[in-house]
Amino acid sequence: MSLTNPPSSAGGPLTTSSLRPTAASNLNLKRTVQAAFDDSGRSGSGYTSKVHVRERYHIVGFISSGTYGRVYKAIGKNGKKGEFAIKKFKPDKEGELIQYTGLSQSAIREMALCSELNHPNVVGLEEIILEDKCIFMVFEYTEHDLLQIIHHHTQPQRHAIPAKMVRSILFQLLNGLLYLHTNWVLHRDLKPANILVTSAGAIRVGDLGLARLFYKPLNSLFAGDKVVVTIWYRAPELLLGSRHYTPAVDMWALGCIFAELLSLRPIFKGEEAKMDSKKTVPFQRNQMMKIVEILGFPRQETWPGLGAMPEYNQLQSMMQSMKMSSRGGMHYNKPSSLDTWYNQCLKNGGYSSSNNTGSPGAEGFDLLSRLLEYDPTKRITAEEALDHPYFTNGGPISANCFEGCENKYPTRRVTQDDNDLRNGSLPGTKRSGLPDDSLLGRAAKRLKE
Fold this sequence. Notes:
Elements: E1 13-14, H1 23-26, H2 33-38, H3 53-56, E2 57-65, E3 69-76, E4 83-89, E5 92-94, E6 97-99, H4 105-116, E7 125-131, E8 134-140, E9 144-145, H5 146-152, H6 163-182, E10 185-186, E11 195-197, E12 203-205, E13 212-213, H7 221-224, H8 236-239, H9 248-263, H10 285-295, H11 312-325, H12 330-333, H13 338-349, H14 361-371, H15 382-386, H16 389-392, E14 397-398
Antiparallel strand pairs: 1-14, 2-3, 3-4, 4-8, 5-6, 7-8, 9-11, 10-13, 11-12
């Protein structure tokens, strides 16, 4: 993999060039963090680890759990300085018996990619340790994520994220995405919970569990993973069953994140239809309707490839039913109302160039509309976005997104109870009807709106 030179983010201005509960919880047992971390299901393996996790790290507490394992906060010891997040991949369990079926494809991809990627705006991997049939990925520790920051701005009442802070977040995020896309990596699961933020205001693209290389794949990307990207951030070409997709899916997700930073709620908050027992991928009608309500219906005149989409007939059926249910077909024919949504969002958030919050202005709307473009071939790229007037015309961009910000954001919640279920109400967890996350840490809790 050929890696490009990353821009510096050591502070100062930036430039445009530059986990489910374990079996123990079913028995109402509460294990300590230390016991859970040490539980590797030892079965007398003849393998002897050359490196022991506890020789290098002191486990402070439990952060979160996901599909493939648990994440713990740790502090380096014996000369190793700093704070770290350790992701422990768990073996498959059948009752009290541990069945070793190997690592998931997602875990292997994440380890392979993170071992080679090196950029200030992509989460840094310290090392990978194999010990007693358990694999530990040791990452740098980040104190916040965007989901946590967004939630903070809804409590005790809604107060807008400063426009200057939003601009810094997006600029750093785009730098990370440009690095990934330049090196043929699709993230495929961008959402606020997966965007990490250090105490120094540096943005890190995190959780590469669904990421994969897209340079000359042997099969279509759809063949390997039929469902990618959490539903609220899923691009229309994915909703319409595209077998071949591009980095444009990440750019759509970025547009959804941009909108969420401004409005403090997901712009397209649909309900996900689950796959049936035959693992048939359903048409996500409700999610598509949420997009249509703001962007209007996609048209073949502006999206030439629309008619070739596998789910195009489903889209037509949805259009016909909406046409019949609307008076005179007005809803069916309505144009995009993204500008109305945007202006109302600025008004509700109190964004104004005359106050301390500032405003993303007309240039912010133009960038958002180009990110939320239906046709993926016309959607703005990361490289083009970095040269957009939204970034080039607004003065210097700080490498610290918190610079000048009066808010003091709470740090990530770390517990001593490995069976803590209080993160179950977070968007992106099974309790809220979305797929489990295997995050490198997440917000303390996000209340239902």
